[in-house]
Amino acid sequence: MADIRSVFAGIKSPNPFWLASAPPTDKAYNVERAYKAGWGGVVWKTLGEDGPPVVNVNGPRYGAIWGADRRLLGLNNIELITDRDLHLNLREIKQVKKNWPDRALVVSLMVPCEEQAWKAILPLVEETGADGVELNFGCPHGMSERGMGSAVGQVPDYVEMVVRWCKQTTRMPVITKLTPNITDIRQPARAAHRAGSDAVSLINTINSITGVNLDTFAPEPTIDGKGSHGGFCGPAVKPIALHMVSEIARDPETAGLPISGIGGITTWRDAAEFLALGAGNLQVCTAAMTYGFKVVQEMIEGLQNWMDAKGHASLDDVIGRAAPNLREWQHLNLNYVAKARIDQDMCIKCGRCHIACEDTSHQAITAMVDGKRHFEVMEEECVGCNLCVNVCPVDGCIDMVPLAAGTLDKRTGATVSADYANWTTHPNNPMAAAAK
Amino acid sequence: MADGLYADGIAAGRLPGEDYEKNFADLHPPLDGHEARVEADRCYFCYDAPCMTACPTSIDIPMFIRQIATGNALGSAKTIFDQNILGGMCARVCPTETLCEEACVREEAEGKPVQIGRLQRFATDAAMQAQRQFYQRGAASGKTVAIVGAGPAGLACAHRLAMHGHAVTIYEAREKSGGLNEFGIAAYKTPDGFAQAEVYYVTAIGGITIERGKALGRDIALAELARAHDAVFLGMGLAGVNALRAEGEDVDGVENAVDYIAMLRQADDLGRLPIGRRVVVIGGGMTAIDAAVQARLLGAEEVTICYRRGQEQMNASQFEQDLAASKGVAIRHWLQPKRVIAENGRVTGIELEYTVLSNGRLAGTGETLTLKADQVFKAIGQSFDAAGLNGSGAAVALTGGRIQVDGEGRTSMPKVWAGGDCIAGGDDLTVSAVAQGRDGAESIHRALAG
Ligand SMILES: Cc1cc2nc3c(=O)[nH]c(=O)nc-3n(C[C@H](O)[C@H](O)[C@H](O)COP(=O)(O)OP(=O)(O)OC[C@H]3O[C@@H](n4cnc5c(N)ncnc54)[C@H](O)[C@@H]3O)c2cc1C
Ligand SMILES: Cc1cc2nc3c(=O)[nH]c(=O)nc-3n(C[C@H](O)[C@H](O)[C@H](O)COP(=O)(O)O)c2cc1C
Ligand code: SF4
Ligand code: SF4
Ligand code: SF4
Predict the structure, then answer these.
(1) A-chain residues near B71 (CB < 8 A)
(2) What residue owns the CA closest to ligand 1's atom 41?
(3) Predicted local confidence at residue A435, as pLDDT
């Protein structure tokens, strides 16, 4: 059985699955249930500075988008950081860590962007015996209006400054949680790295409005006829999160910086993909909020099963394995030619591939042959774009078949070359380097 | 005299050769990968899932379905086998419409439950086809356990005991293992030799010896087994058949449905298996339906089930009744057998009396009806044959003719446990036999360890 024990930024956990800082980690009751269900670690719901806690709205905090069968695809929230007393939280953290020494317990923090505020809270957390802190520079709503959360995360200089204060003050590992509401995710990651952050975690939620009530003209979720933008998470954000994780993983300036992958992780497969693109561990929020803590069993077991089947003995055999295969567009092989091929036995003749190609692409799929409804790829027109594969309702019915070197590409009339050649050397590129 | 379909009396080869294969093909063909994903996607991953509560072996249904949805069919199979090592057979034979699928919240929501049985088959097939074994024999405990009967109860018990490291010997009266999985279940529910493949899969864990052709009471005695082993588990099923109590039932052509089905299940060539042109089946349970449906599939022209009570009282589920109707079986209610009519020692018809319920008691009205029949199948229930317990019969107490057990499957005799159809208070289902075999093994293990 594959060994999925994890050490992330020096923090040990029996598996790489942590609950992200959010309602599932808001108090001892939830966290202990999560540990019982098998979660390897948690990042405690973000704590704020000492004093009267923040308040939440007393109406809907969440909005959502669904698939046709009400499968939850994306969740949006306007919740703030913890609304419970700081010292109550700290007492619980201490007790929970004592009860569960083998699990990771990291404490998320968000206090005003002042040195004193950060330096005041860190010793209090240290005293609980927690394994580390996560700096919440991500929250895109509510707290950001008060100059915290993403308001800090969007300014790399602030990120660097706060991380520096924290590193000066505490011996605990510091994880910097990044907001995706930024153009180039590498900038805040580099800033955190420069300041000595032990790791970064991403993504926090994405600014969003999930819908508008067309009777009341109020955005959802609606509080007394008004709405506010919220933070979007869940399965729908996974592609964005994967991209951001990979950007940092392959950035030479942050090489070796551990990344905690977050955003839409719902199954073992999602988790494996994050690991492959360079995440050192995983954090989950929406999947737990949708299905309960038991989902982690599927993730653990599925990940192990896949690793066993592929002969990966430990997480290190997986982490970052796909990162080197991620390249800039200009380095993709332009001599690679693939053509769509429809398996006529599997085709149910819905015509979606044809109309997608005919109306919106390259007119490369027939609709009628010899007076019969028949869908077949015309190789002389097919550019190999993959649209038909993506719209076909039948799994595996359309294949993208690479042309072997030496065969004729009927569309261009050229013979497929075995050599690798990319845009940087292409004759149409005005900046092309002279062929050697 | 006409041949083939219209041959009078009891005759073989009523159908063209290829029809047999078609008729006895899989009742619920397996889902392909795409179908399984689409179906799995319908599951809500319910909390404290009602389907799971309804399953006698408490399989973690939401989890195994989620594992199918995430492309982890082998992991899914393990989730199933953790609770039910005969999950492959149960996927085929469980009356899901009265178990998990009846409880599924989507049955409540839209009258269309998640097809749990077929998904279970998808996962278990994947593991069995890959010959993937998930369990290892436990470190040898030095204890030995004797099991009587290699049916679902005995096999499930043996597997769990082997996991705990106990050495198991199963004594099986027949020459073939599997119990009713091999000899009773309708052929179209478990085609292609699945029952034997499953026996092989279950016993591949090691540490299980099956002694075939060894019957308790004939070749071995219970007292002796209890002396020679640390524990004994009785999973003997129901070897007896209830009598019709109709006048003249001892003539040719009046047969026990279970015996006929056993013959059918063992036939190499169904075309050579004789069946009546006009068949009457007496009974209202699963066996009656199976006998009637298979009679039709063998080419019987007229098949009538006669049940002495109403439709609501039938033990066969609505699904089973609809299946019979779809195969052209007529089901008649409120009729009880009175007299078998015979000529030259062969049945030619059966006289039945109409019945009514009066003050909660079933009574004949005196009015009768006669149906022509070349063959009459008795499917009015099996009974436990206690003769095999002889020598120590006094020590094993019975209730209502079956073995009395406590909540852990212990009989009244020290060191002896029992489970499956042979115990009192059961519901005569494969899946319940598996649950009782498994739980009996756990109880035995606790006793041996303690
Ligand atoms: C025709 C028919 C159809 C059925 N269809 C279904 C169905 O579709 N779905 C479902 O869930 N259930 C069905 N059932 C019920 C199901 O088959 C039983 O509940 C289940 O097989 C019980 O398992 P068991 O291990 O207790 O007994 P059995 O399967 O009866 O196994 C008992 C074993 O013990 C052996 N044995 C008996 N006496 C002795 C002895 N003295 N010494 C040694 N060995 C002995 C027998 O040979 C047999 O192998 C059906 C039953 C019948 C009769
Ligand atoms: C209701 C809710 C509250 C959240 N609160 C916090 C928070 O207090 N601190 C924080 O760092 N992230 C918070 N998040 C963001 C999550 O930790 C996580 O980064 C995000 O939901 C993406 O992961 P997911 O797709 O698995 O949900 C919250 C998310 C939700 C849904
Ligand atoms: S999820 Fe619980 S707290 Fe939230 S609205 Fe529903 S019942 Fe109330
Ligand atoms: S979309 Fe797929 S199924 Fe539909 S016609 Fe095209 S190939 Fe056939
Ligand atoms: S009751 Fe139905 S929907 Fe709910 S977990 Fe069971 S199979 Fe899935």
Answers:
(1) 269
(2) B216
(3) 47
